[in-house]
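Entry:
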Amino acid sequence: MFNKILIANRGEIACRVIKTARRMGIATVAVYSDADRDALHVSMADEAVHIGPPPSAQSYLDINKIVKACLDTGAQAVHPGYGFLSENAAFAERLASEGIVFIGPNVHAIQSMGDKITSKKLAHEAGVNTVPGCADIIESADAAVRVAQQIGYPVMLKASAGGGGKGMRTASNDDECREGFERATGEARTSFGDDRVFIEKFIVQPRHIEIQVVADKHGNVIHLGERECSLQRRHQKVIEEAPSPFLNDETRSAMGAQAVALARSVHYESAGTVEFIVDRDHHFYFLEMNTRLQVEHPVTEFVTGLDLVELMIRVAAGEVLPLAQSDVQLNGWAIEARVYAEDPLRGFLPSIGRLVRYLAPPASDTVRVDTGVFEGGEVSMHYDPMIAKLITFGMTRDSAIDHMREALNEFYVRGVSHNISFLSALIEHSRFRKGDISTNMIAEVYPDGFHPSDLVHDNPALLIVVAAAIHRSYMDRAAGISGQMPGYEQKADDHWVILFDGHPSLVEIRPVDGGHQVIYGSESYLVLSDWQFGQPLFRGTVNGQLCCIQVERRNLFYRLFHRGSQLDIMVLTARAAELLACMPVKEPPDMSKFLLSPMPGLLTQLKVQPGSEVRSGQDLAVVEAMKMENVLLAEQDGIVAKVLANVGDTLAVDQPILEYESAN
């Protein structure tokens, strides 16, 4: 067994590997860029080595620097995590030449399965079902159109070296195919340094279901069941679960057998994942094999009781798998939700900045949080915007969903925008509850994007009475301050006006043992809690029902979050409410003559100059953020008056890029 390993990664996966290595008594070495100098994985490791500036190509993708860090620290093996160099055959080859063990598959398997075109040919030869398509490299947009016409629309253009939803575009006609080719090759070149793409038939209403395999160096290969990964947005997984609510035993067995057969055909060793797309009739087709640990591996760990990172380390050290296929037992249900720093209400644009507050739900037998951040840390524009992976477990699917709902409700993040409200809405949706999901579900449920109207609370009275009780607590504390002038002491009144959604309502609040009695509308509510001033979570009961509500006091109003919904509530005296009604409403500034950057990122293309005529829908600029290219379009006709940013500039959210005047 190894004495010391280096983790060639960052963020939550680096922290995840360190935890297992520590439990196994193995010392760890972290690597970090300038942007990650104060990152969590750096402080968790036994040693840390600086490897360069923030851009991945100059740090986490620099093979020479990683190898040097191994040699300098005496690390005997490298765990690559996922992403970066995890599926880079040249990296594994270089490590071997230096006498360093790669904690992953052999070079042949990486090369065979890492290239999607080669892998499809090998899968076909191994008897694995494959999707109809063209496995040859597409050289140009015109060639892409010719191939797409032969296969028949809709088609999917995919980067051969791709993954994580990057370098992928769907096309339903020739124009979309041409544009998709340009975008797919551009993203592939930026993300992987390899702009090769191929085309295959796009399966309508598909499910994305993958099989976890593990193999050792002694010819033993097993599978650990499936993961349902169909809830995706722009080909990025959002929520995963194990097992799948869709598969029957026959299909599950057939998929597992084909996954094992494919792994054997390339003499696979270590953990790997064979991904399939499954149609509504349970027909399944090989998608790709990921020759690494998957982001969503914790759901498999929950239902099998196995530590996949430990298995990878033991296999790399030459040990025999400690179990056979007949020993694999799947128990219960696990669900994972990916918490990202992104704004669902602004088209899921990435968010960067400092985590002013970060309070994850406490870990338990049913809740696990894998993260690489901490309160006060930074979410960088240079890397993936993941904040954490939230995983819950239950003996039934409904139980796992209930635990997830409560855990999301307790997840408190401030300082950056996040997608917790979106995750909550998905978990609560009737289609998810029924297991009626596909890779198209999010687009079908939110065809025009995710909006505040999708977050309407089903019982706003709950939040209103809690805000009223909290306000009364503050007023009672203010009334009890010492040193008040005799005869002019402040008194907390029982009668107040609630201002919610612009509408005033009367409320009566009276202190009782352990809480408050609140009368709102025609109903009486008993609000009991041991909540203390400044606590971000209000835990208590309302008329005997347990509740956990996120609370912020923001000057004149209280901001409450519950089940993904946000309510801003003011609690005022009658006179204050009367005067507030007389206040003018401040109008927002007119920014219609500016093209604003909708996200923080790098301005990589600017397609107009002063004097250029602009038509509505025309491409104006491209902003790269989190390795994704985002095309900015004109919202109206006009003429460019000024260019306010240059290619290569790092942009802040809402920073003006150009100003234009009306063509009239």
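The first strand starts at residue 4 and ends at 7.
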